[in-house]
Amino acid sequence: MRAYAGPAGMQQGLNCKREQAEHHREPLEPDARPLEALSLLRGYGCPFVALPPAWANLAGQLGGQQIQESDLFLGSQAFTKNESENLGIIYKWLDDIMWSQAWDLPAQRKVAYAQLKDLAEVSTLALPSLAFGVGQALYSYFWFEDNGGKIDLEAADLSVRLHDLSLQHSGCSDLSMGVGTFLSKVCHERWLFLIMLSAEVGTAFAGRRKDLVHAAAMLQRANQLFADLKEYPFFSFRRWQSLYDINTNSHVFPEGFRQRPVWPTAAVPIAVWLEENYEVFRQDLDLILNQSSFDTLYFMGHVSMTQFSGRRESWAPLNLIHNRELAPHACEVAQRSCKLLAERPEIARCHARDVGAAFARLQPGMGIKPHLWNAPPRLAVHLGLITPPGATMAVGSEELRWEEGKAVVFDDTYIHSVKHEGTDDRYLLIAWFCHPCDTMHAEVAPELSESLCLQ
Fold first, then answer.
1. Do the beta carbons of residue 360 and residue 453 sit within 8 Å?
2. From CA 415, how far away is CA 438, in angstroms rounded?
3. What is the reported pLDDT for 16?
4. Residues in the chain with pLDDT values less than 70
5. b/e for 198-209, b at 16 or more Cβ within 10 A?
6. Torsion angle of alpha carbons 243, 246, 251, 254, nearest 10°?
7. I need a labelling partner for 145 at 20 to 30 A (CA). Which of 32, 58, 421, 448 fits?
8. Domains, the chain, ranges and CATH?
9. How far is it, in rounded angstroms, from Cα 380 to Cα 436?
10. Residue-wise burial string across 305-329, b where 16 or more C-beta atoms lie within 10 A, e elsewhere
């Protein structure tokens, strides 16, 4: 599958591009073709040839010719100089594998991971335009060891390095850049994501007592990136003291608006209302579970494609309403829950991105990787339905636990993650709703005291 080769072998790999063009073979359906066909990076039947470390002085060179992105294939797709296009090519390849039986086989996942490591090496030595896509793929698909709940330190560390490289390659590391250009290149998101990754992976190394020198260096790097970014005009007005104060709702609200990772439940009307209707939501969830139809309904509806957890089904939000539209199959069963949710203007009459509500399951021994919502404004609320011990959520610098019948309101544009060290499935009703201080996306004016919005 993997071939490290000298000049002759590398030239053979490049010839595969021409051979593929001559054969014009169409790819098979994802479930029908073997993983070997999916994971070859030089076209069909052609080995992917990475540059071995000993060739670092020849990075990008091939017999006097410059290696270009278009010389590398992933399946039937040639890479380009565009980072977003390369990300799409890699994600398409991995999605085809993840949604097939191959993903359930450790040996097959190892093959795909090995190919990503080869691409990471090429990114580092010759083609930094691939770094962003490979780094994102490592984060999205290989964050957890063997699809479990434990972070894969090697994959996560490599993802950090590649995101750092992509920050340099994109020019986003230059903080003398004008704000307009900075935002148009999406540099603000690159910076925040790299800070989050560096902090979380450094913390994981320290917590595992693995390579404490490297852990310390990574945490120092995270704090230095944070300190540098705070001085940039787009961020300088924010009152962030710690990198865990980072949130993207602050992109939307001007100086003087108060940001907090956790909101007081009693002050948010929809949270109080959810608690008042706990019995209805719990009874509808019990009906679904007693019918053993949770997974069927989940996969018939709006399936989460975020790869937030280790397995396809380990974190499953069974949507009831999404972007103002009720989920037909789920609502046939959970009729009372859907009727109630359709009457709440914070959800049903909100035009912010990705608002809605879902019954959400997290399986024991699993987790949800660190992330932050980057399309503000909105808030989230969790109503505990079945809350066995062992599950916790970190939001910014806060730690939360769930109780049955109790709601917690939090800002999911802060860095947040979940771990479940218990023994039974945890179920919540999750609602993503119009931010109470946002009047632009709400058809109905929010019911909230101004004192909660202003500093």
1. no
2. 21
3. 33
4. 1-65, 305-306, 449
5. bbbbbbbbbeee
6. -80
7. 32
8. 1-150 (no CATH), 262-452 (2.60.120.330)
9. 11
10. eebbbbbbebbbbbbbbbeeebbeb
